[in-house]
Amino acid sequence: MSADIEINTEKRNFDQEAANWDQVPGRVKMAQDIAHSMIQEITLTPDMDILDFGCGTGLLTFALQPFVRSVAGVDSSQGMLDVFKTKIKEQNLSNVKANYLDLDKGDALEGSYHLIVSSMTLHHVKNINPLLKQFYSILLPSGQLAIADLEPDDGKFHSNNDGVFHFGFDREDLHRTFIDAGFRDVRHRVAAQVEKPVGGGQTRLFAMFLMTGRK
Ligand SMILES: C[S@@+](CC[C@H](N)C(=O)[O-])C[C@H]1O[C@@H](n2cnc3c(N)ncnc32)[C@H](O)[C@@H]1O
Fold first, then answer.
1. How many domains does the chain have?
2. CATH number at residue 173
3. What is the 3-state secondary structure (H, E, C) of 40-93?
4. pLDDT truncated to tens, each residue of the chain (215 aa)?
5. Residue 87 and residue 62: Cα distance in Å, rounded?
6. What is the reported pTM?
């Protein structure tokens, strides 16, 4: 990351955005593309239990749930979780649940899972290394981690950088963090691309990677 970019540590208010989160077509398509790339990279089976970290309104969760036994979402925004829970009711799903969890308040991940997924949440977490170690500790033997997030973006992807601790990730650096946390068979690829306005009448194509690793 270039030295002249300042990180804004204000927490982003996802509660305020929750009601309209799914109304942005580019965001929904990005989540669908990321889900598709996960389905291509990971063999989902009907006996799998998944954790979706930073599940938001469940765009990724609900795309993966038909292929597995259960998906548990966790998120630090009650507003996002309320939208998520409304969808559970509307779709009458018994294999999906959502719980409040805020790492910044010292909450720890619980349970044991065959797969942990996360989409566009890692850049909102200040300390990545302890989080990846927590993921490793709650995965079942040979369980997998699949993280989709921004390629380096110079701080331009978000129109407001509140709560954005990483202006994308260098894949080689993140690969090493996966290895340091204990993961093996670490692989990465492009998962999605989104064109967004960046001011001055210009648009820019932003890419999201998918990185996977096995316990
Ligand atoms: C950009 S949204 C992505 C939501 C969803 N995964 C998607 O693809 O639509 C990031 C989500 O991460 C959650 N989040 C941010 N920091 C978190 C933390 N420390 N612990 C748990 N969730 C967090 C936010 O509340 C938000 O719902």
1. 1
2. 3.40.50.150
3. HHCCCCCCCEEEEECCCCCHHHHHHHHHCCEEEEEECCHHHHHHHHHHHHHHCC
4. 444 555 556 677 888 889 999 999 999 999 999 999 999 999 999 999 999 999 999 999 999 999 999 999 999 999 999 999 999 999 999 999 999 999 888 899 999 999 999 999 999 999 999 999 999 999 999 999 999 999 999 888 888 888 889 999 999 999 999 999 999 999 999 999 999 888 888 999 999 999 999 99
5. 9
6. 0.94
Q: How far is the CA of 140 from the centre of ligand 1 (A)?
A: 23
Residue 1, domain member (yes or no) = no
Ligand 1, atom 8, residue with closest C-alpha: 119
- Nearest residue by C-alpha to atom 10 in ligand 1: 121
